[in-house]
Design brief:
Chain B: This is Phosphopantetheine attachment site. Chain B: InterPro entries: ACP-like_sf, PKS_PP-bd, PP-bd_ACP. Chain B: It comes from Nannocystis exedens. The complex is a heterodimer of chains A (315) and B (96). Chain A is of the alpha/beta class and 315 residues long. Chain A has one domain: Rossmann fold (3-Layer(aba) Sandwich), CATH 3.40.50. Chain A has twelve helices and seven strands. In chain A, strands 3-2-1-4-5-7-6 form a seven-stranded mixed sheet, with helices on both faces. In chain A, helix 8 packs across helix 12. Chain A is globular, with a radius of gyration of 19 Å. Chain B is built from three helices and no strands. In chain B, helix 1 runs antiparallel to helix 2 and helix 1 crosses helix 3. Helices cover 48% and strands 0% of the residues of chain B. The longest helix of chain B has 16 residues. The chains are: A alpha/beta (315), B mainly alpha (96). At the A-B interface, helix 8, helix 10 and helix 12 of A face helix 2 of B. The complex binds S-adenosylmethionine. S-adenosylmethionine binds next to helix 2, helix 5 and strand 2 of chain A.
Chain lengths: 315, 96
């Protein structure tokens, strides 16, 4: 596949050795997530999803939209008792702990942030699921997993931080059992460039605020997945939903500006600024949010049978 | 910012914040210059940062830049008038 770098950050990453880039991500990406979970709990929903919610109505609140998103991911991954699930970039455990509470699966999460691991484990204990939850501070490329040892792999808002996508998908293709599912929910560039990808705003969000981000085209990601032996089952657009989620987060930053700044001076402005850039990008569709579901071998879920609401009531 | 502040003070403070964001003395910022038209050399990120600075400084909420059909911000004077209205609304008890 031709490797066209979309941004300056990506061009710089291409000049580093793979090991140097991994080290760069370990430092630069972790920095954002190492801020106190107390700060994020003022901004995000109660389970601390740092990813888009799913809204059915314009007036819905963040908590409802995130709850719908957890349930949607649970339905898509369809985890049966005893099945093993890997959450790559598990954050403070939003999806992982929801799934642990609502299924009888066994969970392994990784994050680059020790603070996130600690908070996720604290919640796992408080919610009585710690015996089925393991969380490590580990870069995805440092995972050393047995082939065909997982039934599901989840990336929610995390793959965007990973430069070496072929290696990531290769790993997923190897560790999934036949019938295993992978779900990715993340941000993509439209293939025909809209907006300036080398703008100060892009650089600010991808580098200054979030350390390292690599947005690629949706088709590029899908092709890498297919090359890793996966079959694409379902893709849906959540761009509008992310714009709405960000509006809620931004309002929460405003509400708690003083408290946040008391804990981390200047961080409230960083949050509001990067979230505003992101919200404008999604509102203008210069960046797109997709949820992708793929399977290794014959699928155990059937998206063709999923309901789509009928327009006009009567059917 | 506490207490009742009058519109001249708000205009001066907004002008100073704009001047700061483009690293110029306040006197170099014409009151009729458009804030968002490239006239002052403020790009889209600069505009976002400026709005956040204004929100912090006056404890107000500025209009949503991403709302469909969001109005452009206009001149320094117009931005200051917008801020003054928000400050008045807040001082009237309420809100944003
Ligand atoms: C935006 S947060 C999303 C958290 C969570 N999945 C959610 O949806 O709430 C991104 C997460 O990815 C993790 N991450 C980023 N790059 C990673 C990498 N190379 N290896 C492991 N985790 C990574 C970060 O530490 C962080 O926990």
């Amino acid at each position: 596949m031709t490797r066209v770098a979309h941004t300056r950050a990506e061009r710089e990453a291409n000049l580093r050795s793979a090991a140097d880039q991994r080290e760069h991500e370990r430092q630069a990406v972790a920095a954002h997530y190492e801020h106190s979970p107390e700060i994020f709990s003022l901004v995000l929903d109660s389970r601390l999803a740092y990813a888009t919610g799913v809204y059915e109505h314009a007036g819905e609140d963040l908590e409802t939209a995130q709850a719908r998103k957890y349930a949607r991911i649970a339905a898509k991954l369809d985890i049966r008792p005893g099945q093993r699930v890997l959450d790559v970039g598990c954050g403070w455990g939003s999806n992982l702990l929801y799934l642990a509470q609502h299924t009888e699966g066994v969970f392994q999460g990784i994050t680059l942030s020790a603070q996130q691991r600690e908070e996720a484990l604290r919640r796992a204990r408080a919610w009585g699921v710690a015996d089925r939850v393991q969380i490590d501070v580990c870069h995805v490329e440092d995972l050393n997993l047995r082939p065909e040892s997982f039934d599901a792999v989840l990336f929610s808002g995390s793959i965007v931080h990973m430069h070496n996508r072929p290696a990531v998908h290769q790993m997923v293709g190897e560790v999934l059992k036949p019938g295993g599912r992978v779900l990715i929910s993340d941000c993509y560039f439209p293939v025909q460039p809209r907006g300036d990808r080398d703008s100060a705003a892009t650089e600010y969000i991808f580098v200054e605020a979030l350390g390292y981000c690599r947005l690629i085209g949706l088709a590029e990601e899908l092709q890498l997945m297919e090359r890793a032996g996966l079959d694409i089952l379902h893709v849906e657009d959540l761009t509008r939903h992310y714009a709405q989620t960000l509006a809620h987060w931004i309002d929460n930053v405003r509400k708690h500006r003083r408290t946040i700044d008391a804990m981390a001076p200047g961080f409230a402005a960083v949050l509001q600024q990067y979230m505003t850039v992101a919200r404008m990008s999604f509102a203008r569709r210069t960046a797109l949010e997709y949820m992708i579901l793929a399977t290794k071998g014959a699928p155990t879920v059937d998206p063709g049978a999923w309901p789509i609401a009928q327009k006009g009531g009567r059917s | 910012m506490d207490g009742i502040i009058d519109n001249d003070l708000i205009l001066a403070r907004v002008r100073a914040l704009i001047a700061e964001s483009v690293r110029q003395p306040a006197a170099a910022i014409p009151l009729d210059a458009r804030v968002d038209g490239g006239e002052l050399g403020i790009d889209s990120l600069g505009l976002i940062k400026l709005m956040v600075r204004i929100e912090e400084a006056f404890d107000i909420t500025m209009p949503d830049l991403a709302a469909p059909g969001a109005a452009p911000f206009g001149s320094v004077r117009e931005v200051a008038a917008l801020v003054a209205r928000q400050v008045a609304a807040r001082q009237a008890g309420g809100g944003q």
